[in-house]
Amino acid sequence: MSKLPKAALSLKQFMLRQEVLKLYREIWRTTRLVPDQHSRRELREWARHDFKANRNQNDEVAIKMLMQSARRSLTELQTSLQLSGTNVNDI
């Protein structure tokens, strides 16, 4: 009988979870650079909603697709900030 709890993650799941958390933190850090407080709040609500909505996703392929979409959105946000004169490299 295994001593691991039923909810224990495999190494692959654990690593993927770490990647997701890293992406979330990077999005959060980037939103700090948005000068308009209303826009910043809106972006954070968007990120929080999307991550919470997919919190129980277990399919590895679906998770990777969601991460790819989030990275694309993050890149667009960073590009917009750079075009507005904000130094995104300080994150």
From TrEMBL:
Signal peptide residues on this chain, from the entry's feature table: none
Chief location bin: mitochondrion
Domain Complex 1 LYR protein residue range list: 18-75
InterPro entries listed in its UniProt record: Complex1_LYR_dom (IPR008011), Complex1_LYR_LYRM2 (IPR045293)
GO cellular component terms, A-Z: mitochondrion
Pfam families linked to this entry: Complex1_LYR (PF05347)
Oxidoreductase is among the record's keywords: no
Job of this protein: Involved in efficient integration of the N-module into mitochondrial respiratory chain complex I.
Annotated family: Belongs to the complex I LYR family.
Protein's UniProt name: LYR motif-containing protein 2
Lineage: Eukaryota, Metazoa, Ecdysozoa, Arthropoda, Hexapoda
